[in-house]
Design a protein that fits this description.
- The chain is of the alpha/beta class and about 290 residues long.
- It has one domain: Rossmann fold (3-Layer(aba) Sandwich).
- About 30% of the residues lie in helices and about 25% in strands.
- The chain has 9 helices and 12 strands.
- The strands form 2 sheets. The chain has a 7-stranded mixed beta sheet, with helices on both faces. Strands 1, 2, 3, 4 and 10 form a 5-stranded antiparallel beta sheet that branches.
Length: about 290
């Protein structure tokens, strides 16, 4: 690991953002950023970074560019994936108004509309918000720590690859709980902090490298994220994708039932080998 001048670093998290633990060990030390692992809960998080390093939340639309042909080329696939993720959540709660936190170019909003839901979006990038409004959706500029919506406005909240973008995940999740109705559900997708390559060589892995950083502050594993959710008033009901969606069409449910055993084997293999790059989680607001 590099030896760096700590006086050139800005402290981001004095304690673990997940469990508030004060004991940690460095896992990736670079001139511009230092990642550590909590000795108490095992979460990996950004402890400090150079003052010149851009901080704060960034929109997917901004990171990829609104005019990115490559990002837009996979639009249909992204919408279909979002449909499956929303259906995961609908296995546990009733349909209702949906909020997509980090709505980007509106893929999850389009998926929600196709399922007959009433979706709204929020994003830090005004260009992303304007794009979603152009598609006919309600969208607002805001951050996950301060959502511009009334208490209990939503039945469903989707957070796809946004929770890792804040050093204050407890603040963000408590804010999500505020805008959720009692019994409402949250779907979260985040990078898998237990990825085998990231664990084996964090110093050189893209999760923790200086180059290519997309504003990631915390890397979760299912256990650490479940613990964080409990502390914020949520109850986890499912980790990883459902094999059958009870609110899908009859034909889709039949296909899912037939292929479920094979997909279950695939999930077990991914967990056992540590090759998973992301994981999904559904939780309900506890009351």
């Amino acid at each position: 690991m590099e030896t760096i001048d700590q006086s050139q670093q800005v402290l981001v998290s004095a304690s673990c953002p997940v469990c508030d633990g004060a004991r940690w060990a460095p896992i990736a030390v670079h001139a511009k950023v230092v990642f550590v692992r909590c000795s108490e809960c095992g979460a990996a998080y950004r402890r400090s970074h150079a003052a010149s390093l851009q901080s704060g939340q960034t929109s997917t639309a901004v990171r990829h560019g609104d005019a990115s042909a490559m990002y837009r080329r996979r639009s249909w696939r992204r919408v279909q994936k979002s449909r499956h993720q929303i259906l995961d959540l609908l296995n546990h709660c009733e349909p209702g108004p949906l909020l997509d936190v980090g709505c980007s170019l509106g893929y999850t909003l389009l998926a929600a509309r196709s399922l007959g839901l009433d979706p709204s979006g929020v994003d830090v990038a005004p260009t992303a918000v304007e794009h979603c409004r152009g598609l006919g959706f309600k969208a607002e500029v805001g951050t996950m720590e301060r959502l511009p919506f009334a208490d209990g406005a939503f039945e469903l909240v989707v957070m796809k690859h946004v929770l890792e973008h804040t050093p204050r995940p407890k603040v963000a999740l408590c804010e999500v709980r505020r805008v959720l109705r009692p019994g409402g559900g949250i779907f979260i997708a985040v990078p898998f902090g237990g990825n085998r390559k990231a664990r084996r060589d964090p110093q050189n892995h893209k999760f923790f490298a200086e180059k290519g950083l997309f504003g990631h502050y915390v890397y979760y594993e299912p256990e650490t994220l479940e613990s964080l959710l409990r502390a914020c008033g949520f109850r986890t009901v499912q980790v990883h994708p459902h094999l059958v969606h009870r609110r899908a069409g009859a034909a889709m449910r039949l296909v899912q039932a037939v292929t479920a055993p094979l997909r279950r084997v695939g999930q077990v293999a991914q967990n056992a080998t540590g090759v998973r790059k992301e994981f999904w989680l559904c939780a309900l607001r506890s009351d």
